[in-house]
Amino acid sequence: MGDGSSGPTMDLLRSEPMQLVQLIIPIESAFRTISYLGDLGLFQFNDLNAEKSPFQRTYAAQIKRCAEMARKLRFFKEQMRKAGLSPSTKSLRSGDIDLDYLEVTLGELESELIEINSNNEMLQHTYNELSEYKLVLQKAGELFHSAQSIVAAQQSELELYNTTEQSVERSLLLEQEITMDPSKQVNLGYISGLVAREKSMAFERILFRATRGNVFLKQSVLENAVVDPVLGDEVEKNVFVVFYSGERAKNKILKLCEGFGANRYPFTEDLNKQFQIISQVSGRLAELKTTIDVGLAHRSNLLQTIGFEFEHWNFLVKKEKSIYHILNMLNMDVTKKCLVAEGWCPVFAKDQIQNGLRRATLDSNSQIGAIFHVLQTKESPPTFFQTNKFTSAFQEIIDAYGVAKYQEVNPSVYTIVTFPFLFAIMFGDWGHGICLLLATLYLIMREKKLSSQKLGDIMEMAFSGRYVIMMMGIFSIYTGLIYNEFFSVPFELFGPSAYGCRDQSCRDAYTAGLVKVHDTYPFGLDPKWHGSRSELPFLNSMKMKMSILFGVAQMNLGIIMSYFNAKFFGDNINIWYQFVPQIIFLNSLFGYLSLLIIVKWCTGSQADLYHVMIYMFLSPTDDLDDNQLFIGQKFFQILLLLSALAAVPWMLFPRPFLLKKQHEERFQGQSYARLDGNDYPPEIEPHSVSHNHEEFEFSEVFVHQLIHTIEFVLGAVSNTASYLRLWALSLAHSELSSVFYDKVLLLAWGYNSIIARGIGLSVFIFATVGVLLVMETLSAFLHALRLHWVEFQNKFYVGDGYKFYPFSFASLGQDDE
């Protein structure tokens, strides 16, 4: 794997070599040490205080302090969101700020902002109340003015009535009514205010019932919504005036106003006082508006100042909190002067980590340097692959199935090519491939801008896999050129067709009368095949056989990878009693079938391969007759059949017995070695002793091997058949594309109407994008994923490892608090 200290191997085939390291750090340099390791991002700390609760750890108070500062920053962010401002990223990581100074600054800013908000709320509440009061004065004044006008009209009618000739008795009665004793007249009180329009009808009905109809309610609708002083929201309201008689009625009205949330305001009948109050209220509103605007401007300036430094402060607080979180994972030694850390790091990072430790010692003026000590352990290290933005998406596809065991073969090396290729076999159309490629090139060209934005779930998934989709588009263009399909239309891109009409009278060149007139079409499918009567049988045969060839090749690659795994880990038992019988069994049956397909293609034989494979098992000694493809085929088939039958017990029986023997020899040798008492380092001795006394369950191993053998034998058949999905989806994609082109676009183009053609073109575009470029892409993607996870990876990939998660500040900006 190369020299461990010189640099990363960047080898995607196997994970980076890892080592378990113990760091002994003086307390005075501990903070800087962890900070520099976080900048480096190549050390994964183990929690040495897992039995302690978060409140029992050494630096719980510092974490609580950082959490309080983070709360204040979240408060600032929420205030900026409400004000329509966004934090600036210009000053991100512009320099370090003392944490004590930052804590004081955040506290002062929070107090100032809370005070500004409180004053603004009070002023806004007063402003809203005065606005409502002004509306009540105006609308109630209109109600009283209209009522007084009606009374004046009635009095004028009454005077006119008295001047006419009336009986003496009627005149006396009217005069008596008018000149009634003022002390006996009823004085009516009134209450004015505003009530929500949606509650006005209910308010009127309940008011009538509660007072038994002994009130008079008059309402006036406000044209525009007003801001409610209590709720702070815009509400459509009505101005009301309730006339009543008596204190009991008044109390009931007040309670109903309170229950319905109606705001009451005083009102006077005197017109002079009304005008005076309206003038005072208007002046007060103007003053409040000016004061509120000044307060909002001051608040906006304060939030802009906070926003300019927000990202820097937020990163600093997160950084401090993460450092103290790591310090809480460290052990305090008995002298209380050093912290002991344990964790994993790549072998190549040894020099970088030691340089960071020395720099932390110098910067903190510590008299004692940190100690870097490599520990010996039998614990399985974490898996670490150095990926870039191109390979990371393919690695995520593999990790979704399972993280690779430490230094086992990584399937993503082959997946980079095989995954988009198998997808393209099912999606072969160079027109559709160009559409996919253009869409992903747009994402790649704008990746810097898009990576900093919040995208939707589907768009985020497409953006993260942009390089996978790009490769899928490129391979789809390649296979589409082989299939010679551009939105299901063939083109003579690489020269003229090899076929032409037999004579000039040939009218239907797609159904009859075609003869070979040129050399064979140089690349891909001859365009004359499309639309002919032989197209479907020919394509079915070609794609089905091609699927079997690719499937057998990929499964053989998986078995060969199991050989390299076994060789790397020095497991000869797996080489001889797993790899060898598996490769023999698979190729004795389906490798032979692949050979027959190639021979038939090369010789042009009319042999029936179904008959050959079936009677290879049923009647292996019968003559092949017309189905013979080469000399000695009968003997060769019998030899392959016997080899396949011999491979099954070869896989099943020897391995469990050899594992048992190996375990007994190892246990015996280790038990003798323990007599010296000096061969094991003290830190791993307890683990080694417990490992020596592990019992070997032969029955469990044998049953596991039996299951594995049955699974492989049956899987060889089912997995090969599973690759026929390449043929099925390729055919479905081609036929769907042909249907959309022939039955939608060409059918619409047959009309002379521009509207009909426009409708047909629109339907064709939406069907192509919605069905072929979205649904078919997803379908082919999932089927390619299944072929890699099940048919390919189960031949060699264990996938029971765990990822390497180093402590790094680079990921803090992406994490939510």
Automatic annotation (TrEMBL):
Essential component of the vacuolar proton pump (V-ATPase), a multimeric enzyme that catalyzes the translocation of protons across the membranes. Required for assembly and activity of the V-ATPase. Keywords: Hydrogen ion transport, Ion transport, Membrane, Transmembrane, Transmembrane helix, Transport. The keyword tRNA processing does not apply. It comes from Salix viminalis (Common osier). It is found in: Membrane. One of its GO terms (molecular function) is ATPase binding. Its main location: membrane. Belongs to the V-ATPase 116 kDa subunit family. The chain crosses the membrane at residues 421-444, 465-483, 546-564, 576-599, 635-653, 754-775. One of its GO terms (biological process) is vacuolar acidification. This is V-type proton ATPase subunit a.
